[in-house]
Amino acid sequence: MKVLVVTGGIGSGKSEVCRILSLMGLDLQYNADSRVKMLYYEHPSLIEDIELGLGCSLRDDKGNFVPSRLAGRIFVDRDAMALVESIVFPALFEDFESFCMRHPENDVVVFESATILEKPDFEGFGDYTILVDAPFDLRLARACSRDNADKAAVLARMNNQKLMNSFSAGHIDPRIDAVIINDGSFEDLHTKTE
What are the C-alpha distances in Å from 157 to residues 13, 18, 33, 183? Predict the structure, then answer.
Protein backbone atom coordinates (compact mmCIF):
# COMPACT_ATOMS: atom_id res chain seq x y z
CA MET A 1 0.00 0.00 0.00
CA LYS A 2 1.36 3.41 -0.99
CA VAL A 3 1.09 6.29 1.49
CA LEU A 4 0.15 9.70 0.07
CA VAL A 5 0.92 12.36 2.68
CA VAL A 6 -1.11 15.57 2.57
CA THR A 7 0.28 18.31 4.79
CA GLY A 8 0.01 22.04 5.28
CA GLY A 9 -0.23 24.68 7.94
CA ILE A 10 -3.32 25.76 9.82
CA GLY A 11 -5.91 27.17 7.42
CA SER A 12 -4.10 25.99 4.29
CA GLY A 13 -6.94 23.81 3.06
CA LYS A 14 -5.37 20.37 3.44
CA SER A 15 -8.66 18.87 4.67
CA GLU A 16 -10.42 20.26 1.58
CA VAL A 17 -7.76 18.67 -0.62
CA CYS A 18 -8.34 15.36 1.18
CA ARG A 19 -12.09 15.66 0.52
CA ILE A 20 -11.39 16.28 -3.16
CA LEU A 21 -9.02 13.28 -3.27
CA SER A 22 -11.80 11.18 -1.72
CA LEU A 23 -14.19 12.28 -4.48
CA MET A 24 -11.50 11.24 -6.96
CA GLY A 25 -11.47 7.70 -5.52
CA LEU A 26 -8.74 7.99 -2.89
CA ASP A 27 -11.23 7.43 -0.10
CA LEU A 28 -9.06 5.44 2.32
CA GLN A 29 -7.89 8.30 4.52
CA TYR A 30 -6.21 8.58 7.89
CA ASN A 31 -6.26 11.96 9.63
CA ALA A 32 -3.34 11.78 12.05
CA ASP A 33 -4.31 14.89 14.00
CA SER A 34 -7.85 13.62 14.60
CA ARG A 35 -6.65 10.12 15.45
CA VAL A 36 -4.25 11.43 18.10
CA LYS A 37 -7.19 13.13 19.82
CA MET A 38 -9.16 9.87 19.72
CA LEU A 39 -6.22 7.83 21.02
CA TYR A 40 -6.26 9.87 24.23
CA TYR A 41 -9.77 8.55 24.90
CA GLU A 42 -9.28 5.04 23.52
CA HIS A 43 -6.05 4.48 25.48
CA PRO A 44 -6.31 6.21 28.90
CA SER A 45 -2.80 4.98 29.71
CA LEU A 46 -1.47 7.59 27.26
CA ILE A 47 -2.86 10.38 29.44
CA GLU A 48 -1.54 8.70 32.58
CA ASP A 49 1.95 8.46 31.06
CA ILE A 50 1.81 12.08 29.87
CA GLU A 51 0.65 13.34 33.27
CA LEU A 52 3.45 11.40 34.94
CA GLY A 53 6.01 12.82 32.52
CA LEU A 54 4.77 16.40 32.79
CA GLY A 55 4.16 16.21 36.53
CA CYS A 56 0.68 17.72 36.33
CA SER A 57 -2.95 16.72 35.97
CA LEU A 58 -4.69 17.08 32.62
CA ARG A 59 -8.12 16.23 34.02
CA ASP A 60 -11.04 18.08 35.52
CA ASP A 61 -12.52 17.48 38.98
CA LYS A 62 -14.49 14.50 37.65
CA GLY A 63 -11.39 12.85 36.20
CA ASN A 64 -12.16 13.67 32.57
CA PHE A 65 -9.30 14.55 30.21
CA VAL A 66 -9.24 18.27 29.34
CA PRO A 67 -7.48 18.73 25.97
CA SER A 68 -7.03 22.47 26.48
CA ARG A 69 -4.84 21.79 29.53
CA LEU A 70 -2.52 19.68 27.42
CA ALA A 71 -2.53 22.20 24.57
CA GLY A 72 -1.83 25.06 26.98
CA ARG A 73 1.23 23.21 28.24
CA ILE A 74 2.79 21.87 25.05
CA PHE A 75 2.32 24.91 22.81
CA VAL A 76 4.47 27.05 25.12
CA ASP A 77 7.06 24.45 26.15
CA ARG A 78 9.06 22.60 23.46
CA ASP A 79 10.42 20.09 25.99
CA ALA A 80 6.86 19.24 27.05
CA MET A 81 5.90 18.86 23.39
CA ALA A 82 8.82 16.49 22.78
CA LEU A 83 7.89 14.41 25.83
CA VAL A 84 4.26 14.10 24.72
CA GLU A 85 5.31 13.16 21.18
CA SER A 86 7.66 10.46 22.50
CA ILE A 87 4.64 8.90 24.22
CA VAL A 88 2.00 9.48 21.55
CA PHE A 89 3.85 8.82 18.27
CA PRO A 90 4.52 5.11 18.90
CA ALA A 91 0.80 4.65 19.60
CA LEU A 92 -0.05 6.60 16.44
CA PHE A 93 2.28 4.47 14.27
CA GLU A 94 0.72 1.31 15.71
CA ASP A 95 -2.79 2.67 15.10
CA PHE A 96 -1.94 3.59 11.50
CA GLU A 97 -0.46 0.17 10.80
CA SER A 98 -3.58 -1.48 12.21
CA PHE A 99 -5.77 0.84 10.09
CA CYS A 100 -3.92 -0.15 6.91
CA MET A 101 -4.09 -3.85 7.74
CA ARG A 102 -7.89 -3.59 7.99
CA HIS A 103 -7.99 -2.38 4.36
CA PRO A 104 -5.74 -4.72 2.36
CA GLU A 105 -7.82 -4.19 -0.77
CA ASN A 106 -6.62 -0.58 -1.12
CA ASP A 107 -3.52 0.39 -3.08
CA VAL A 108 -3.25 3.91 -1.63
CA VAL A 109 -3.95 5.48 1.75
CA VAL A 110 -4.06 9.26 2.22
CA PHE A 111 -2.31 10.32 5.44
CA GLU A 112 -3.29 13.84 6.52
CA SER A 113 -1.07 15.62 9.04
CA ALA A 114 -0.37 19.28 9.73
CA THR A 115 3.11 18.85 11.21
CA ILE A 116 4.54 15.63 9.76
CA LEU A 117 7.48 17.37 8.06
CA GLU A 118 8.48 19.06 11.32
CA LYS A 119 8.71 15.81 13.29
CA PRO A 120 11.93 13.75 13.06
CA ASP A 121 10.00 10.60 14.04
CA PHE A 122 8.32 10.74 10.61
CA GLU A 123 11.52 11.14 8.57
CA GLY A 124 11.18 9.01 5.44
CA PHE A 125 7.48 8.34 6.09
CA GLY A 126 5.20 8.10 3.08
CA ASP A 127 5.75 7.52 -0.60
CA TYR A 128 4.59 10.88 -1.95
CA THR A 129 4.02 14.21 -0.20
CA ILE A 130 1.68 17.01 -1.21
CA LEU A 131 1.99 20.37 0.53
CA VAL A 132 -1.15 22.50 0.58
CA ASP A 133 -0.24 26.12 1.16
CA ALA A 134 -1.69 29.63 1.12
CA PRO A 135 -0.43 33.07 2.08
CA PHE A 136 0.03 33.47 5.84
CA ASP A 137 -2.64 36.16 6.29
CA LEU A 138 -5.18 34.11 4.34
CA ARG A 139 -4.44 31.02 6.45
CA LEU A 140 -4.86 33.10 9.60
CA ALA A 141 -8.21 34.52 8.46
CA ARG A 142 -9.49 31.07 7.45
CA ALA A 143 -8.48 29.48 10.76
CA CYS A 144 -10.06 32.26 12.82
CA SER A 145 -13.28 31.99 10.83
CA ARG A 146 -13.38 28.18 10.76
CA ASP A 147 -12.65 27.73 14.47
CA ASN A 148 -14.49 30.88 15.60
CA ALA A 149 -11.26 31.57 17.46
CA ASP A 150 -9.46 34.61 18.76
CA LYS A 151 -6.75 35.88 16.39
CA ALA A 152 -4.09 35.77 19.14
CA ALA A 153 -4.90 32.13 19.94
CA VAL A 154 -4.66 31.11 16.28
CA LEU A 155 -1.41 33.06 15.86
CA ALA A 156 0.08 31.21 18.83
CA ARG A 157 -0.74 27.88 17.16
CA MET A 158 0.55 29.06 13.78
CA ASN A 159 3.81 30.27 15.30
CA ASN A 160 4.51 26.69 16.40
CA GLN A 161 4.44 25.62 12.75
CA LYS A 162 7.67 27.36 11.78
CA LEU A 163 8.43 25.07 8.85
CA MET A 164 4.91 25.48 7.44
CA ASN A 165 5.28 29.25 7.75
CA SER A 166 8.61 29.10 5.91
CA PHE A 167 6.87 27.35 3.00
CA SER A 168 4.41 30.24 2.80
CA ALA A 169 7.46 32.52 2.60
CA GLY A 170 8.90 30.55 -0.34
CA HIS A 171 11.10 27.90 1.34
CA ILE A 172 11.61 24.76 -0.77
CA ASP A 173 11.94 21.30 0.77
CA PRO A 174 13.11 18.26 -1.25
CA ARG A 175 10.73 15.99 0.71
CA ILE A 176 7.76 17.66 -0.99
CA ASP A 177 6.72 16.14 -4.30
CA ALA A 178 3.93 18.60 -5.20
CA VAL A 179 2.59 21.92 -3.94
CA ILE A 180 -0.99 23.10 -4.21
CA ILE A 181 -1.40 26.84 -3.61
CA ASN A 182 -4.90 27.31 -2.20
CA ASP A 183 -5.46 31.02 -2.68
CA GLY A 184 -8.66 31.01 -4.72
CA SER A 185 -12.11 29.46 -4.87
CA PHE A 186 -13.10 25.88 -4.11
CA GLU A 187 -13.40 25.29 -7.84
CA ASP A 188 -9.81 26.49 -8.32
CA LEU A 189 -8.65 24.16 -5.54
CA HIS A 190 -10.47 21.23 -7.14
CA THR A 191 -8.79 21.91 -10.48
CA LYS A 192 -5.35 22.25 -8.89
CA THR A 193 -5.82 19.03 -6.92
CA GLU A 194 -6.85 17.11 -10.05
Answer: 16, 22, 14, 21
Nearest-angstrom CA–CA distance, 121 and 161? 16
> What's the rounded Cα separation, in Å, for the pair 154 and 157?
5
Give the C-alpha distances (Å, rounded to integers) separating 167 from 35, 36, 98, 108. Answer: 25, 25, 32, 26
pLDDT band at 115 (very low <50, low <70, confident <90, very high): confident
- The pTM of the full predicted model, rounded to 2 decimals, is 0.87
**pLDDT digit string, tens, across residues 147-185:** 777 787 777 776 667 676 677 667 778 899 999 999 999
Tell which residue, 178, 180, 125, has the closest CA to residue 2: 125
Closest CA to 6 of 110, 76, 81: 110
Amino acid at 174: P
DSSP for 45-73, please give it.
HHHHHHHHHHTS--B-TTS-B-HHHHHHH
